[in-house]
Write a structure and sequence with these properties.
With 241 residues, the chain is of the alpha+beta class. It has two domains: 71 residues, no CATH class; 128 residues, Four Helix Bundle (Hemerythrin (Met), subunit A), CATH 1.20.120. The chain has seven helices and six strands; from the N terminus they run ββββββααααααα. Strands 1, 2, 3, 4, 5 and 6 form a six-stranded antiparallel beta sheet that branches. α4 packs antiparallel against α5.
């Protein structure tokens, strides 16, 4: 690749294969040291996304002129299984300098997803959800099911979400205790639920509070006076007679 050339590459910020411009190129050569060795070259290209300006390093590995990666170069940072949610930065901004562990581990979940570490991601999702529960119910009840029951009884989650959280947290338990390896689809489902709960407990709570503060109050209802009732003179006269 030449400087100024364009090509498709994965962009973690945009989420998908996007057009990039080559900013810089470099080559690393490993010459033969004996007749049994092979020529080995690493080609590095610094790429910038034409959509969001995100920069990534692409590495192509060749041995004796043959592409050893089959047209699938390596990227640094590596492609992530999913894009980080837009609200993650806002959550960090409202958490203060002493960020809560629930936020820090949530960040590590996306790092694990980006580095093909499904076990760490699955265990991280469980940890995030448990810490969120403990934070919102005002203390650890010592057992997962009791924490979840308190989260439900205090109105933080619906009955349907309580059942889903039971399944999601069991996947994390299976990873820890039974060596279970969740698939990419399973990981996406786990993170979907985690993001929904975090948004509901932390992001939406603050957003709805601000929304209520900006909404003008409803004006008091003006009650119209009731019309006078007609008097039945004949009926009154008969009653008196």
């Amino acid at each position: 690749m030449q400087v100024g050339a364009t090509g498709k590459a994965w962009c973690n910020s945009c989420g998908g294969s996007k057009w990039h411009t080559v900013l810089h190129v470099a080559q690393q050569n490993f010459p033969r040291e004996s007749e049994y060795d092979q020529d080995e070259d690493n080609f590095y290209s610094m790429l910038q996304c034409r959509g969001c300006d995100n920069v990534v390093l692409q590495k192509d590995w060749y041995v004796d002129g043959q592409d050893m990666q089959g047209g699938h170069p390596s990227y640094y940072p590596p492609p992530s299984l999913r894009k980080r949610p837009d609200w993650l930065l806002r959550w960090w901004g409202t958490s203060g300098l002493q960020a809560k562990p629930v936020f820090l581990i949530c960040q590590e979940v996306y790092t694990a997803l980006q580095n093909n570490q499904p076990h760490l991601a699955s265990m991280g999702v469980r940890a995030v959800l448990e810490l969120a529960m403990i934070d919102k119910i005002g203390g650890d009840r010592s057992r997962f099911d009791e924490n979840l029951a308190a989260l439900y009884s205090q109105g933080h989650v619906s009955l349907l979400m309580r059942e889903r959280l039971t399944t999601v947290l069991d996947v994390g338990s299976a990873t820890i205790h039974r060596g279970h390896t969740p698939s990419s689809d399973d990981l996406n489902t786990l993170v979907d639920i985690m993001e929904h709960v975090i948004e509901s407990l932390y992001i939406h709570e603050a957003d709805v509070k601000r929304l209520a503060e900006r909404t003008p109050p409803r004006p008091p209802r003006v009650r119209e006076p009731k019309p006078p009732q007609d008097v039945n003179v004949e009926g009154v006269a008969n009653k008196g007679g």
